[in-house]
Protein backbone atom coordinates (compact mmCIF):
# COMPACT_ATOMS: atom_id res chain seq x y z
CA UNK A 1 0.00 0.00 0.00
CA UNK A 2 1.05 3.58 -0.48
CA UNK A 3 -0.21 6.97 0.62
CA UNK A 4 -2.10 8.51 -2.32
CA UNK A 5 -4.45 11.02 -0.69
CA UNK A 6 -3.98 13.16 2.43
CA UNK A 7 -6.45 15.38 4.23
CA UNK A 8 -4.81 18.37 5.88
CA UNK A 9 -6.65 20.71 8.26
CA UNK A 10 -4.55 22.53 10.83
CA UNK A 11 -5.00 25.49 13.15
CA UNK A 12 -1.30 25.69 13.99
CA UNK A 13 0.21 25.96 10.54
CA UNK A 14 3.86 25.67 11.60
CA UNK A 15 5.81 23.58 9.08
CA UNK A 16 2.70 22.59 7.14
CA UNK A 17 3.68 24.19 3.82
CA UNK A 18 7.02 22.39 3.55
CA UNK A 19 5.47 19.12 4.71
CA UNK A 20 2.68 19.26 2.12
CA UNK A 21 4.97 20.46 -0.64
CA UNK A 22 7.18 17.39 -0.17
CA UNK A 23 4.16 15.07 -0.03
CA UNK A 24 2.81 16.64 -3.17
CA UNK A 25 6.16 16.24 -4.93
CA UNK A 26 6.00 12.55 -4.04
CA UNK A 27 2.66 12.33 -5.83
CA UNK A 28 0.34 12.58 -2.81
CA UNK A 29 -2.93 14.42 -3.50
CA UNK A 30 -3.69 17.00 -0.82
CA UNK A 31 -7.25 17.79 0.27
CA UNK A 32 -7.66 20.71 2.62
CA UNK A 33 -10.04 23.05 4.48
CA UNK A 34 -10.55 26.85 4.33
CA UNK A 35 -7.54 28.57 5.90
CA UNK A 36 -5.13 25.68 5.41
CA UNK A 37 -6.10 25.33 1.76
CA UNK A 38 -5.68 29.10 1.13
CA UNK A 39 -2.19 29.03 2.66
CA UNK A 40 -1.10 26.00 0.64
CA UNK A 41 -2.44 27.50 -2.62
CA UNK A 42 -0.74 30.80 -1.88
CA UNK A 43 2.55 28.96 -1.37
CA UNK A 44 2.10 27.10 -4.66
CA UNK A 45 1.25 23.67 -3.24
CA UNK A 46 -1.43 21.96 -5.36
CA UNK A 47 -4.52 21.44 -3.20
CA UNK A 48 -8.10 20.22 -3.60
CA UNK A 49 -10.73 22.06 -1.54
CA UNK A 50 -12.72 19.93 0.93
CA UNK A 51 -15.98 21.03 -0.73
CA UNK A 52 -14.86 19.41 -3.98
CA UNK A 53 -14.63 16.11 -2.09
CA UNK A 54 -17.82 16.41 -0.04
CA UNK A 55 -19.87 18.22 -2.67
CA UNK A 56 -21.01 20.37 0.22
CA UNK A 57 -19.96 23.91 1.18
CA UNK A 58 -18.04 24.70 4.40
CA UNK A 59 -20.84 26.22 6.47
CA UNK A 60 -21.72 27.85 9.80
CA UNK A 61 -18.41 29.68 10.25
CA UNK A 62 -16.46 26.44 9.87
CA UNK A 63 -18.57 24.50 12.35
CA UNK A 64 -19.35 22.03 9.56
CA UNK A 65 -16.72 21.41 6.91
CA UNK A 66 -15.20 17.94 7.17
CA UNK A 67 -18.10 16.27 9.01
CA UNK A 68 -19.24 14.34 5.97
CA UNK A 69 -19.51 10.65 4.94
CA UNK A 70 -17.20 11.30 1.99
CA UNK A 71 -14.48 12.11 4.51
CA UNK A 72 -15.25 9.52 7.17
CA UNK A 73 -15.88 6.57 4.86
CA UNK A 74 -12.57 7.41 3.16
CA UNK A 75 -10.92 7.24 6.56
CA UNK A 76 -12.77 4.32 8.11
CA UNK A 77 -13.09 1.85 5.22
CA UNK A 78 -11.30 -1.40 5.92
CA UNK A 79 -9.24 -1.72 2.79
CA UNK A 80 -9.23 -5.51 2.60
CA UNK A 81 -12.94 -5.87 3.39
CA UNK A 82 -14.75 -6.67 0.17
CA UNK A 83 -18.05 -5.26 1.32
CA UNK A 84 -16.43 -1.95 2.31
CA UNK A 85 -14.63 -1.80 -1.03
CA UNK A 86 -17.85 -2.50 -2.93
CA UNK A 87 -19.70 0.22 -1.00
CA UNK A 88 -16.92 2.73 -1.65
CA UNK A 89 -17.06 2.01 -5.38
CA UNK A 90 -20.84 2.03 -5.55
CA UNK A 91 -21.02 5.43 -3.85
CA UNK A 92 -18.09 6.85 -5.79
CA UNK A 93 -16.02 7.50 -2.64
CA UNK A 94 -12.22 7.69 -2.39
CA UNK A 95 -9.84 6.51 0.32
CA UNK A 96 -7.96 9.00 2.49
CA UNK A 97 -4.64 7.48 3.56
CA UNK A 98 -3.19 10.24 5.70
CA UNK A 99 -4.80 12.76 8.05
CA UNK A 100 -2.90 15.78 9.29
CA UNK A 101 -4.91 17.71 11.84
CA UNK A 102 -4.24 19.89 14.81
CA UNK A 103 -7.09 21.35 16.76
CA UNK A 104 -8.64 24.73 17.53
CA UNK A 105 -6.48 26.30 20.27
CA UNK A 106 -8.84 25.69 23.18
CA UNK A 107 -6.06 25.75 25.81
CA UNK A 108 -4.55 28.99 24.51
CA UNK A 109 -8.02 30.53 24.40
CA UNK A 110 -8.98 29.75 27.99
CA UNK A 111 -5.50 30.77 29.17
CA UNK A 112 -6.31 34.34 28.13
CA UNK A 113 -7.31 36.46 31.12
CA UNK A 114 -11.05 37.25 31.10
CA UNK A 115 -11.77 34.98 28.14
CA UNK A 116 -15.41 35.22 27.07
CA UNK A 117 -17.42 32.02 27.55
CA UNK A 118 -18.63 32.21 23.93
CA UNK A 119 -15.05 32.47 22.74
CA UNK A 120 -14.09 29.35 24.70
CA UNK A 121 -17.07 27.42 23.31
CA UNK A 122 -16.31 28.46 19.73
CA UNK A 123 -12.81 27.07 20.20
CA UNK A 124 -14.04 23.57 20.91
CA UNK A 125 -13.00 21.66 17.81
CA UNK A 126 -15.48 19.04 16.60
CA UNK A 127 -14.53 18.13 13.05
CA UNK A 128 -10.82 17.82 13.86
CA UNK A 129 -11.06 15.28 16.70
CA UNK A 130 -13.62 13.33 14.67
CA UNK A 131 -11.17 12.92 11.80
CA UNK A 132 -8.32 12.17 14.18
CA UNK A 133 -10.37 9.45 15.86
CA UNK A 134 -11.55 7.89 12.59
CA UNK A 135 -8.02 7.76 11.23
CA UNK A 136 -6.52 6.54 14.50
CA UNK A 137 -9.09 3.75 14.78
CA UNK A 138 -8.25 2.66 11.24
CA UNK A 139 -4.47 2.83 11.82
CA UNK A 140 -4.11 -0.58 10.17
CA UNK A 141 -4.40 1.37 6.91
CA UNK A 142 -4.40 5.10 7.70
CA UNK A 143 -1.64 7.34 9.06
CA UNK A 144 -2.59 10.17 11.38
CA UNK A 145 -0.46 13.11 12.45
CA UNK A 146 -1.49 15.49 15.23
CA UNK A 147 1.94 16.87 16.09
CA UNK A 148 4.26 18.77 13.75
CA UNK A 149 7.17 17.00 15.44
CA UNK A 150 6.13 13.85 13.53
CA UNK A 151 6.18 15.40 10.03
CA UNK A 152 9.79 14.50 9.35
CA UNK A 153 9.43 10.83 10.27
CA UNK A 154 6.32 10.46 8.10
CA UNK A 155 8.09 12.11 5.15
CA UNK A 156 11.09 9.86 5.56
CA UNK A 157 9.01 6.69 5.60
CA UNK A 158 6.86 7.74 2.63
CA UNK A 159 9.98 8.68 0.73
CA UNK A 160 11.58 5.30 1.32
CA UNK A 161 8.59 2.93 1.15
CA UNK A 162 5.59 4.88 -0.15
CA UNK A 163 3.84 4.48 3.22
CA UNK A 164 4.47 4.61 6.95
CA UNK A 165 5.18 1.37 8.77
CA UNK A 166 2.44 -0.29 10.82
CA UNK A 167 4.58 0.30 13.91
CA UNK A 168 4.63 4.04 13.22
CA UNK A 169 0.89 4.12 12.52
CA UNK A 170 0.21 2.38 15.84
CA UNK A 171 2.41 4.86 17.68
CA UNK A 172 0.74 7.82 15.96
CA UNK A 173 -2.73 6.41 16.72
CA UNK A 174 -1.98 6.05 20.43
CA UNK A 175 -0.62 9.59 20.45
CA UNK A 176 -3.84 10.83 18.86
CA UNK A 177 -6.05 9.23 21.50
CA UNK A 178 -3.88 10.73 24.24
CA UNK A 179 -4.20 14.06 22.49
CA UNK A 180 -7.98 14.00 22.04
CA UNK A 181 -8.46 12.66 25.57
CA UNK A 182 -6.38 15.53 26.98
CA UNK A 183 -8.23 18.02 24.76
CA UNK A 184 -11.62 16.80 26.00
CA UNK A 185 -10.35 16.70 29.59
CA UNK A 186 -9.48 20.37 29.40
CA UNK A 187 -12.89 21.21 28.01
CA UNK A 188 -14.69 19.21 30.69
CA UNK A 189 -12.50 20.77 33.38
CA UNK A 190 -13.24 24.26 32.09
CA UNK A 191 -16.98 23.63 31.93
CA UNK A 192 -17.07 21.96 35.36
CA UNK A 193 -15.37 24.99 36.86
CA UNK A 194 -17.65 27.42 35.05
CA UNK A 195 -20.59 25.43 36.42
CA UNK A 196 -19.15 25.62 39.94
CA UNK A 197 -18.63 21.86 40.05
CA UNK A 198 -14.87 21.36 40.45
CA UNK A 199 -15.26 17.87 41.97
CA UNK A 200 -17.64 16.17 39.52
CA UNK A 201 -18.63 12.49 39.35
CA UNK A 202 -15.68 11.80 37.06
CA UNK A 203 -12.31 13.57 37.21
CA UNK A 204 -10.56 13.83 33.85
CA UNK A 205 -7.40 15.77 34.61
CA UNK A 206 -4.42 15.30 32.31
CA UNK A 207 -0.80 16.31 32.57
CA UNK A 208 1.97 16.83 30.03
CA UNK A 209 5.42 15.39 30.53
CA UNK A 210 8.15 17.91 31.20
CA UNK A 211 10.94 15.41 31.55
CA UNK A 212 11.86 11.90 32.53
CA UNK A 213 13.69 11.78 35.82
CA UNK A 214 16.73 9.65 36.44
CA UNK A 215 14.82 7.86 39.20
CA UNK A 216 12.21 8.46 41.89
CA UNK A 217 12.57 8.85 45.62
CA UNK A 218 15.08 5.99 45.50
CA UNK A 219 17.27 4.77 42.64
CA UNK A 220 15.18 1.65 42.01
CA UNK A 221 12.00 3.70 41.36
CA UNK A 222 11.10 4.95 37.86
CA UNK A 223 9.88 8.56 37.71
CA UNK A 224 8.91 11.49 35.49
CA UNK A 225 7.90 15.14 35.96
CA UNK A 226 4.53 16.32 34.59
CA UNK A 227 2.83 19.70 34.38
CA UNK A 228 -0.83 20.71 34.38
CA UNK A 229 -1.89 22.22 31.05
CA UNK A 230 -2.60 25.62 32.61
CA UNK A 231 0.04 25.77 35.35
CA UNK A 232 0.58 29.26 36.77
CA UNK A 233 3.75 31.08 35.80
CA UNK A 234 5.36 31.14 39.24
CA UNK A 235 5.46 27.42 39.92
CA UNK A 236 8.29 24.96 39.80
CA UNK A 237 6.82 23.53 36.59
CA UNK A 238 7.48 26.82 34.82
CA UNK A 239 10.81 27.72 36.46
CA UNK A 240 13.88 28.11 34.30
CA UNK A 241 17.00 26.22 35.33
CA UNK A 242 19.99 28.52 34.89
CA UNK A 243 22.73 26.25 36.15
CA UNK A 244 23.54 22.80 37.46
CA UNK A 245 22.67 19.17 37.00
CA UNK A 246 19.22 17.91 36.11
CA UNK A 247 16.65 18.13 38.90
CA UNK A 248 15.95 14.90 40.75
CA UNK A 249 12.58 13.68 42.03
CA UNK A 250 13.47 14.64 45.62
CA UNK A 251 14.78 18.03 44.45
CA UNK A 252 11.44 18.77 42.82
CA UNK A 253 9.45 17.76 45.87
CA UNK A 254 11.63 19.80 48.23
CA UNK A 255 11.85 22.82 45.93
CA UNK A 256 8.08 22.83 45.61
CA UNK A 257 7.73 22.77 49.40
CA UNK A 258 10.21 25.65 49.74
CA UNK A 259 8.37 27.67 47.13
CA UNK A 260 5.02 27.19 48.85
CA UNK A 261 6.42 28.49 52.13
CA UNK A 262 8.31 31.48 50.74
CA UNK A 263 5.15 32.59 48.93
CA UNK A 264 3.53 33.09 52.35
CA UNK A 265 5.55 36.27 52.74
CA UNK A 266 5.21 39.69 51.15
CA UNK A 267 8.43 40.99 52.80
CA UNK A 268 11.88 39.67 51.81
CA UNK A 269 11.95 36.04 52.96
CA UNK A 270 14.16 32.99 52.62
CA UNK A 271 13.22 29.39 53.35
CA UNK A 272 15.59 26.46 53.64
CA UNK A 273 14.03 23.03 53.24
CA UNK A 274 15.22 19.53 54.02
CA UNK A 275 13.07 16.47 53.36
CA UNK A 276 9.97 18.58 52.69
CA UNK A 277 10.15 20.46 56.01
CA UNK A 278 11.51 23.96 56.58
CA UNK A 279 14.70 23.80 58.62
CA UNK A 280 15.22 27.56 58.57
CA UNK A 281 12.99 30.49 57.68
CA UNK A 282 13.98 34.14 57.96
CA UNK A 283 12.50 37.48 57.00
CA UNK A 284 14.26 40.84 56.91
CA UNK A 285 14.68 44.24 55.34
CA UNK A 286 16.75 42.70 52.56
CA UNK A 287 17.12 39.26 51.02
CA UNK A 288 20.62 39.13 52.50
CA UNK A 289 19.25 39.65 55.99
CA UNK A 290 16.48 37.12 55.37
CA UNK A 291 19.00 34.51 54.21
CA UNK A 292 21.35 35.25 57.12
CA UNK A 293 18.46 34.47 59.47
CA UNK A 294 17.31 31.37 57.60
CA UNK A 295 20.89 30.12 57.78
CA UNK A 296 21.38 31.00 61.46
CA UNK A 297 18.09 29.25 62.28
CA UNK A 298 19.78 25.87 61.82
CA UNK A 299 23.29 25.99 60.32
CA UNK A 300 23.56 22.21 60.56
CA UNK A 301 20.42 21.13 58.71
CA UNK A 302 20.65 23.66 55.89
CA UNK A 303 23.74 21.86 54.55
CA UNK A 304 22.75 20.16 51.29
CA UNK A 305 19.36 21.85 51.47
CA UNK A 306 17.05 23.67 49.11
CA UNK A 307 16.85 27.44 49.51
CA UNK A 308 13.98 29.54 48.15
CA UNK A 309 13.98 33.35 48.17
CA UNK A 310 11.20 35.74 47.19
CA UNK A 311 13.51 38.51 45.97
CA UNK A 312 16.30 38.73 43.39
CA UNK A 313 19.56 37.21 44.67
CA UNK A 314 22.28 39.89 44.78
CA UNK A 315 26.04 39.44 45.00
CA UNK A 316 26.25 39.72 48.81
CA UNK A 317 23.64 37.03 49.24
CA UNK A 318 25.30 34.91 46.55
CA UNK A 319 28.62 35.13 48.38
CA UNK A 320 27.01 33.96 51.59
CA UNK A 321 25.06 31.23 49.82
CA UNK A 322 28.24 29.93 48.24
CA UNK A 323 29.88 29.37 51.64
CA UNK A 324 28.06 26.06 52.06
CA UNK A 325 26.90 23.21 49.85
CA UNK A 326 23.31 23.72 48.72
CA UNK A 327 21.42 21.49 46.28
CA UNK A 328 19.22 24.26 44.85
CA UNK A 329 18.69 28.00 45.09
CA UNK A 330 15.33 29.17 43.75
CA UNK A 331 14.57 32.84 43.32
CA UNK A 332 12.56 35.19 41.11
CA UNK A 333 15.90 36.05 39.46
CA UNK A 334 19.65 36.52 40.06
CA UNK A 335 21.81 39.56 39.32
CA UNK A 336 24.62 38.91 36.84
CA UNK A 337 27.20 39.26 39.66
CA UNK A 338 25.29 36.74 41.76
CA UNK A 339 25.21 34.32 38.83
CA UNK A 340 28.95 34.76 38.28
CA UNK A 341 29.57 33.85 41.92
CA UNK A 342 27.15 30.93 42.16
CA UNK A 343 27.88 29.30 38.80
CA UNK A 344 31.46 28.75 39.96
CA UNK A 345 29.96 25.97 42.06
CA UNK A 346 29.47 22.96 39.83
CA UNK A 347 27.00 21.13 42.00
CA UNK A 348 24.49 23.83 42.80
CA UNK A 349 21.27 24.07 40.77
CA UNK A 350 19.92 27.59 40.16
CA UNK A 351 16.26 28.04 39.32
CA UNK A 352 14.67 31.28 38.18
CA UNK A 353 10.97 31.36 38.97
CA UNK A 354 10.08 34.84 37.74
CA UNK A 355 8.12 37.12 40.03
CA UNK A 356 6.39 35.18 42.81
CA UNK A 357 2.75 35.91 43.27
CA UNK A 358 2.10 35.81 47.01
CA UNK A 359 -1.57 36.66 46.45
CA UNK A 360 -2.06 33.63 44.19
CA UNK A 361 -0.87 31.48 47.06
CA UNK A 362 -4.06 32.40 48.82
CA UNK A 363 -6.26 31.27 45.93
CA UNK A 364 -7.58 27.81 46.51
CA UNK A 365 -6.77 25.04 44.09
CA UNK A 366 -7.20 21.29 44.30
CA UNK A 367 -4.43 19.01 45.43
CA UNK A 368 -4.33 15.30 44.91
CA UNK A 369 -2.86 12.52 47.01
CA UNK A 370 -2.78 9.10 45.43
CA UNK A 371 -3.67 6.10 47.53
CA UNK A 372 -3.59 2.45 46.59
CA UNK A 373 -6.46 2.04 44.14
CA UNK A 374 -7.40 5.70 43.84
CA UNK A 375 -6.79 9.17 45.06
CA UNK A 376 -8.16 11.76 47.43
CA UNK A 377 -8.64 15.35 46.42
CA UNK A 378 -8.93 18.42 48.58
CA UNK A 379 -8.67 22.18 48.35
CA UNK A 380 -5.19 23.43 49.09
CA UNK A 381 -4.71 24.94 52.55
CA UNK A 382 -4.70 28.64 51.70
CA UNK A 383 -6.01 29.96 54.98
CA UNK A 384 -4.20 32.97 56.38
CA UNK A 385 -4.95 34.96 59.47
CA UNK A 386 -4.65 38.54 60.74
CA UNK A 387 -3.88 39.65 64.29
CA UNK A 388 -7.40 41.03 64.66
CA UNK A 389 -8.90 37.56 64.08
CA UNK A 390 -7.00 35.96 66.97
CA UNK A 391 -8.67 35.18 70.26
CA UNK A 392 -6.56 36.00 73.32
CA UNK A 393 -7.40 33.34 75.93
CA UNK A 394 -4.89 34.16 78.67
CA UNK A 395 -4.73 36.91 81.31
CA UNK A 396 -1.88 38.50 79.40
CA UNK A 397 -2.22 39.52 75.74
CA UNK A 398 0.82 39.22 73.46
CA UNK A 399 3.02 42.32 73.13
CA UNK A 400 3.37 43.86 69.67
CA UNK A 401 6.66 42.05 69.11
CA UNK A 402 5.29 38.74 70.36
CA UNK A 403 2.29 39.14 68.05
CA UNK A 404 4.62 39.67 65.08
CA UNK A 405 6.57 36.53 65.92
CA UNK A 406 3.38 34.53 66.52
CA UNK A 407 2.02 35.39 63.08
CA UNK A 408 5.40 34.55 61.54
CA UNK A 409 5.50 31.19 63.34
CA UNK A 410 1.91 30.47 62.30
CA UNK A 411 2.78 30.98 58.62
CA UNK A 412 5.65 28.54 58.95
CA UNK A 413 3.98 25.84 61.06
CA UNK A 414 1.26 25.52 58.42
CA UNK A 415 3.91 24.01 56.12
CA UNK A 416 5.56 21.68 58.61
CA UNK A 417 4.54 18.02 58.65
CA UNK A 418 2.19 17.20 61.53
CA UNK A 419 2.51 17.00 64.44
CA UNK A 420 4.32 20.30 64.08
CA UNK A 421 5.75 22.80 66.52
CA UNK A 422 7.70 25.89 65.46
CA UNK A 423 9.61 28.22 67.75
CA UNK A 424 10.29 31.72 66.45
CA UNK A 425 12.21 34.76 67.64
CA UNK A 426 13.64 37.84 65.91
CA UNK A 427 11.93 37.10 62.58
CA UNK A 428 13.36 33.62 62.23
CA UNK A 429 12.62 30.08 63.22
CA UNK A 430 14.77 28.89 66.12
CA UNK A 431 13.33 25.40 66.47
CA UNK A 432 11.24 23.11 64.28
CA UNK A 433 9.67 19.88 65.50
CA UNK A 434 8.20 18.03 62.51
CA UNK A 435 6.27 14.87 61.76
CA UNK A 436 6.03 13.48 65.27
CA UNK A 437 3.41 11.00 66.42
CA UNK A 438 2.67 13.07 69.52
CA UNK A 439 2.62 16.82 70.01
CA UNK A 440 4.77 16.92 73.10
CA UNK A 441 7.43 14.98 71.16
CA UNK A 442 7.44 17.65 68.44
CA UNK A 443 7.75 20.36 71.10
CA UNK A 444 10.68 18.57 72.76
CA UNK A 445 12.55 18.45 69.45
CA UNK A 446 11.88 22.13 68.68
CA UNK A 447 12.93 23.23 72.18
CA UNK A 448 16.06 21.11 72.17
CA UNK A 449 17.05 22.51 68.78
CA UNK A 450 16.46 26.09 69.94
CA UNK A 451 18.67 25.64 73.03
CA UNK A 452 19.19 29.00 74.72
CA UNK A 453 17.18 30.70 71.98
CA UNK A 454 13.97 29.12 73.33
CA UNK A 455 14.09 31.68 76.13
CA UNK A 456 11.91 34.58 75.03
CA UNK A 457 10.79 32.81 71.84
CA UNK A 458 7.17 32.18 70.79
CA UNK A 459 5.65 28.81 69.94
CA UNK A 460 3.26 27.89 67.12
CA UNK A 461 1.40 24.59 67.06
CA UNK A 462 -0.42 23.32 63.95
CA UNK A 463 -3.21 21.74 66.03
CA UNK A 464 -4.56 22.07 69.56
CA UNK A 465 -2.88 20.66 72.66
CA UNK A 466 -4.71 17.54 73.82
CA UNK A 467 -3.48 18.24 77.36
CA UNK A 468 -1.41 20.71 79.36
CA UNK A 469 1.95 18.87 79.05
CA UNK A 470 3.23 20.77 75.96
CA UNK A 471 2.52 24.11 77.60
CA UNK A 472 4.31 22.98 80.75
CA UNK A 473 7.35 22.05 78.69
CA UNK A 474 7.24 25.33 76.74
CA UNK A 475 6.93 27.38 79.91
CA UNK A 476 9.93 25.68 81.50
CA UNK A 477 11.97 26.41 78.36
CA UNK A 478 11.18 30.13 78.64
CA UNK A 479 8.61 30.46 75.84
CA UNK A 480 6.63 33.68 76.35
CA UNK A 481 3.76 33.38 73.86
CA UNK A 482 1.83 30.65 72.06
CA UNK A 483 -0.39 30.45 68.99
CA UNK A 484 -2.56 27.39 68.40
CA UNK A 485 -6.02 26.57 67.04
CA UNK A 486 -7.71 25.82 70.39
CA UNK A 487 -10.73 23.54 70.56
CA UNK A 488 -9.44 20.74 72.81
CA UNK A 489 -11.69 19.56 75.64
CA UNK A 490 -8.64 20.19 77.82
CA UNK A 491 -8.01 23.76 76.59
CA UNK A 492 -8.58 24.98 80.16
CA UNK A 493 -5.64 22.87 81.34
CA UNK A 494 -3.31 24.61 78.87
CA UNK A 495 -4.75 28.06 79.62
CA UNK A 496 -4.18 27.47 83.36
CA UNK A 497 -0.53 26.53 82.81
CA UNK A 498 -0.05 29.54 80.52
CA UNK A 499 -1.51 31.91 83.13
CA UNK A 500 0.65 30.39 85.86
CA UNK A 501 3.78 31.19 83.86
CA UNK A 502 2.61 34.54 82.47
CA UNK A 503 2.50 33.18 78.90
CA UNK A 504 0.29 35.00 76.40
CA UNK A 505 -1.74 32.54 74.34
CA UNK A 506 -3.95 33.13 71.29
CA UNK A 507 -6.36 30.78 69.53
CA UNK A 508 -6.73 30.89 65.75
CA UNK A 509 -9.82 28.67 65.51
CA UNK A 510 -8.18 27.09 62.46
CA UNK A 511 -6.04 23.96 62.22
CA UNK A 512 -3.17 23.43 59.79
CA UNK A 513 -2.63 19.68 59.62
CA UNK A 514 -0.20 18.62 56.91
CA UNK A 515 0.61 14.96 56.49
N1 LIG B 1 -16.17 21.50 11.65
C1 LIG B 1 -15.40 20.77 10.91
O1 LIG B 1 -15.90 20.04 10.11
C2 LIG B 1 -13.93 20.89 11.03
N2 LIG B 1 -13.09 20.17 10.30
C3 LIG B 1 -11.82 20.54 10.66
N3 LIG B 1 -11.89 21.49 11.60
C4 LIG B 1 -10.75 22.20 12.20
O2 LIG B 1 -10.46 23.35 11.45
C5 LIG B 1 -9.10 23.75 11.66
C6 LIG B 1 -8.49 24.19 10.35
O3 LIG B 1 -9.26 25.18 9.75
P1 LIG B 1 -8.72 26.01 8.52
O4 LIG B 1 -8.13 25.02 7.57
O5 LIG B 1 -9.93 26.69 8.01
O6 LIG B 1 -7.70 27.02 9.05
C7 LIG B 1 -8.41 22.55 12.26
O7 LIG B 1 -8.05 22.89 13.58
C8 LIG B 1 -9.46 21.44 12.22
O8 LIG B 1 -9.35 20.60 13.33
C9 LIG B 1 -13.18 21.74 11.85
N4 LIG B 1 -13.62 22.68 12.75
C10 LIG B 1 -14.26 22.48 13.90
O9 LIG B 1 -14.92 21.65 14.33
What's this, in brief?
This protein has 18 helices and 21 strands.
CATH level-four homologous superfamily name of the largest domain:
Methylglyoxal synthase-like domain
Strand ordering within the main sheet = 8-13-12-11-9-10
Query: In CATH's first tier, which class of the largest domain applies?
Result: Alpha Beta
Question: Cα-atom Rg, whole angstroms?
Answer: 30 Å
Structural class by secondary-structure content: alpha/beta
Bound heterogens, unique: the ligand NC(=O)c1ncn([C@@H]2O[C@H](COP(=O)(O)O)[C@@H](O)[C@H]2O)c1NC=O
CATH architecture of the largest domain: 3-Layer(aba) Sandwich
What share of residues is helical?
Answer: 25-40%
Distance between the termini: 58 Å
Largest sheet, if any? 6 strands, mixed
Tell me which oligomeric state these chains represent.
single chain
Helix count equals: 18
Strand content: 15-25%
Global geometry: elongated
How many separate domains make up the residues? 3
Write out key terms for the chains shown.
Cytidine Deaminase, domain 2, Rossmann fold, six-stranded mixed β-sheet, alpha/beta, 21 strands, binds ligand FAI, 18 helices, 515 residues
Written description of the protein model:
With 515 residues, this protein is an alpha/beta fold. The chain has three domains: 5-195, Methylglyoxal synthase-like domain (Rossmann fold, 3-Layer(aba) Sandwich); 237-359, AICAR transformylase, duplication domain (Cytidine Deaminase, domain 2), CATH 3.40.140.20; 383-507, Cytidine Deaminase, domain 2, CATH 3.40.140.20. It has helices spanning 16-25, 34-42, 50-54, 69-76, 82-90, 106-111, 117-122, 127-137, 151-161, 166-194, 249-262, 287-297, 315-321, 336-342, 400-413, 439-450, 469-477, 491-501, and strands at residues 5-10, 29-32, 48-49, 98-102, 143-145, 208-213, 223-227, 240-243, 269-274, 277-283, 306-309, 328-331, 349-352, 366-371, 374-379, 391-392, 421-425, 428-433, 458-461, 481-484, 504-507. It has a six-stranded mixed β-sheet. It has a six-stranded mixed β-sheet with strand order 16-21-20-19-17-18, sandwiched between helices. Strand 11, helix 13 and strand 12 form a beta-alpha-beta unit. Helix 13 (315-321) runs parallel beside helix 14. The longest helix has 29 residues, at 166-194. The two termini are 58 Å apart. 39% of the residues are buried. The mean pLDDT is 96. The ligand NC(=O)c1ncn([C@@H]2O[C@H](COP(=O)(O)O)[C@@H](O)[C@H]2O)c1NC=O is lined by residues 9-11, 33-36, 62-67, 101-104, 125-128.
Amino acid sequence: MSIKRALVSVSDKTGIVDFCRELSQMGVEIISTGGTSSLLSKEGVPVIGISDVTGFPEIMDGRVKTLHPAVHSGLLAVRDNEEHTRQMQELGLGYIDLVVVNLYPFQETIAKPDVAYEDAIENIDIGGPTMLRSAAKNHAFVSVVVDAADYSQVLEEVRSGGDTTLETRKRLAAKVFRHTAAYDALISDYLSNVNGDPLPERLTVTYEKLQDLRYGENPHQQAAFYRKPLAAQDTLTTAEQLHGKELSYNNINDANAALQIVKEFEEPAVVAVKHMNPCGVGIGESIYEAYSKAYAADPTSIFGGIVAANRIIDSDTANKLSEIFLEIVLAPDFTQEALDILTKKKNIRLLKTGELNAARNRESQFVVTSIDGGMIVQQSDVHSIEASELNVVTDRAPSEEEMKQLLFGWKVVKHVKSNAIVLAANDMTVGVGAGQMNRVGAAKIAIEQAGDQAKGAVLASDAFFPMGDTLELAAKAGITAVIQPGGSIKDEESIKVANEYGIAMVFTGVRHFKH
